[in-house]
Design a protein that fits this description.
The chain has about 210 residues and is of the alpha/beta class. The chain has helices spanning about 1-10, 20-25, 50, 70-85, 100-105, 120-130, 170, 190-200, 200-205, and strands at about 45, 60-65, 90, 115-120, 135-140, 145, 155-160, 175-180. The protein contains nine helices and eight strands. Strands 1-4-3-2-7-5-8-6 form an eight-stranded parallel beta sheet. β3, α5 (about 100-105) and β4 (about 115-120) form a beta-alpha-beta unit. It is elongated and about 60 Å long. The N and C termini lie far apart (about 50 Å).
Length: about 210
């Protein structure tokens, strides 16, 4: 605790001591907070609406999350996307897992640095991005085109579907293209966080 306090004071953060019950009300996760809670600035966290119209640039890529419900998958997905070639991660408030302690833990803290773009409804956000010149690309194991095929330099939003249902019907209807990840040995699909890593590093893997 002394080390945590020293680090906080070194950053100029105010340190406030609370009773256990009061701290649990602040953290809202008594079993996860381990006796410490913090207000943290997250410079990469933005509302997508603030950036609209988000002008596409050649080769730009956004990664969008559609119905991912497992917090560990979401955390690892954010970590992979932040490490790779993604300008932002479109994360809706409805229809999937929200940011919680397990997401933060699974992301190894990268959720605080990742370029998260929050929206209320993913289909509405994608429709607006599409009107602004972005191509919508969904991942589908039955698609004819491969993620690693040479493509034009259009800006793209790559949509990853949930663990069970995949990409939703509403999002599928907005898609400009469907892409698959080539797989062997009869494997039908990959974990969504692994898929995010392949999307984020697709250009380098393709080379």
């Amino acid at each position: 605790l002394e080390e945590i306090e020293a680090l906080a004071r070194a950053q100029g953060a105010e340190v406030v001591l609370h009773e256990r019950a009061e701290l649990a009300r602040i953290s809202r996760h008594a079993r996860e907070d381990q006796g410490v809670a913090a207000d943290v600035r997250t410079p990469g966290y933005r509302q997508l609406a603030e950036l609209m119209p988000l002008a596409p640039t050649a080769g730009a890529a956004l990664l969008a999350v559609d119905g991912v419900t497992n917090p560990q998958n979401l955390g690892m997905l954010i970590r992979s996307a932040a490490a790779g070639d993604c300008q932002g991660i479109v994360l809706p408030r409805r229809g999937g897992c929200d940011i919680c302690p397990l997401v933060i833990k699974s992301s190894a803290g990268t959720v605080f640095r990742a370029p998260l773009l929050r929206c209320d409804s993913l289909p509405e956000a994608l429709a607006e991005l599409r009107r602004g010149g972005w191509k919508i690309s969904i991942l589908d194991g039955h698609a004819r085109l491969s993620l690693f095929d040479p493509r034009d330099d259009a800006a793209r939003v790559f949509v990853l579907g949930g663990e069970t249902a995949g990409v939703s019907t509403a999002v599928r209807e907005l898609a400009d293209e469907s892409l698959r990840i080539p797989m062997a040995n009869g494997v039908e699909s990959l974990n969504v966080a692994v898929t995010a890593a392949l999307v984020a590093f697709r250009a380098r893997l393709g080379r």
